[in-house]
Amino acid sequence: MNNRILMLLFMCMPVMLWAQRLPVHEKQKELQERMVEVSLSEIQERLSLTEMQISQLRPVYKQYQKKVARLNMQNHKLFNRMNADTLSDEQAKTILREYLDRERKLYALNKQYMDNLLEILSPQQVIKLYQSDSDIKRKIRMEYLRRTGKPKR
Q: Where is the signal peptide (predicted)?
């Protein structure tokens, strides 16, 4: 009987661990969505955007942030989940080509984003948006470091 219970617990452990991990992912996603909303509110205030402008900007900004995050995560996974010393030259070249491909996609995404922004905002407002977005992200990073006690890089 005890062996059956131990076997059942052993078999269920991966499922239990996976189930516990799910809320963390959801919390992280929720946190990212809140940060985007806070950023949009701050951008609206800093650029003195009308309700019409912010309603047009919101989906463009959210979609861009989501796509950039996905590309950055793919590059992060690409480089941080391997040991470069164990790769053959061909494997390393393949990985570098994948990285450059993602960088091209990021460039195309940035170009499309700017084109979309220029349909909504003046060129001066686009520059202010980039400045504000950079400042907001820096403040978020600083607050994260302060709260977690992690050293600055």
A: 1-19
Q: Where are the alpha helices (DSSP H) in 48-122?
A: 51-80, 89-120
Cα separation, 145 vs 151, in Å, equals 7
Cβ atoms of 47 and 129 within 8 Å: the answer is yes
Q: What is residue 152's DSSP assignment?
A: P
For the chain, how big is the Rg over CA atoms in Å? 21
- Token pair for 122: 């003046």
What is the per-residue pLDDT for 132? 93
- Note the pTM of the prediction, 2 decimals: 0.73
Residue 34 has pLDDT above 60, yes or no: yes
Give residue-wise pLDDT tens across range 108-132. 999 999 999 999 999 999 999 999 9
Spatial contact of 78 and 95, defined as CB atoms under 8 Å apart? yes
Average pLDDT over residues 104-111: 95
Please, what is the end-to-end C-alpha distance for the chain in angstroms? 54
